[in-house]
Specification:
Layout: E1 4-5, H1 8-23, E2 37-38, E3 239-243, E4 249-253, E5 258-262, E6 270-274, H2 282-294, H3 296-303
Parallel strand pairs: 1-2
Antiparallel strand pairs: 3-4, 3-6, 4-5
Amino acid sequence: METKTITPNEFTNIMRSHEIWRASDGREGKQAVFKNYDLSQVNFASLNLSCADFSEAVIPNNNFSGASLVNADLSHAVLTGCNLSDADFTGADLQKADLENTICSRTNFFSVTANGASFNGADLFMSNFFCSKLADTKFENVSAVSACFNNADLSKARLDHSNFTCSEFNQASLDSAICNATNFNEVSLVKADMKNARLDECRFTGANMKYADMKNASINLTSFYKASPIADVKTNESLLSVSVDTNHSFIYNVNRDQVSFSDHKPPVSMTAFLRLPKIANNQLLANICQSIKINRDRFLSSRKNISR
């Protein structure tokens, strides 16, 4: 469908009528509808755009800083490269919207519905996604330092190669999410649902994982350096942390015969159990340790390419 164009004066007139419509609870004026419009020439900074319809609108590289888009409809909209800093999207519909490479510092996405949207390459510093619906949403190669995803639904989302340092995912759902080589350092994951998630080569340095659920999660070459309290993590796998030398230990998955590493100095050779079935005999434990030592050089070599 061909997009429609609009002049700044036409936009101003539509928004005046929209303000009357909002103030009168729809009795007077008219709702602003920009469906399928090309709005690339309009500056939205600090405007009140609440309840406006921007579905399928094309608005790339625009300025929405400080704008209010509470309960606005931006489904299928193209917002690539926009500055959304300090904007308020509370309750907005962002389903399948394109927000790639946007700047979203301190942006409020509280309780948005953004299933299938893409935030790839976005800067989400201190952004708020509390209680948001983000299933199948893409957060690849994003920087989301100190962001809030508490109680959000991120099931089947893509979070590959992203930085979520110091962010919060308390009681969030990451069921079946794909998070390869992602930085979760100092992240709070209290009661987070990470069942069936792909967490290969991730870093959870200093993460709070109390009562997190990692049943059937994949954690190949994943670091849990100083993560706590590991003993409370739920898993149906047989995971065992075994010391290899004075500087390194490895988490060994008995069921899958896989190893993940962790850089810390364990006080004893067997440092932690995660719902581990009772080891049948010392020979089995010796075989596990020998298997890890045989592959020690390969895992330490891989470790050089992954920063903590």
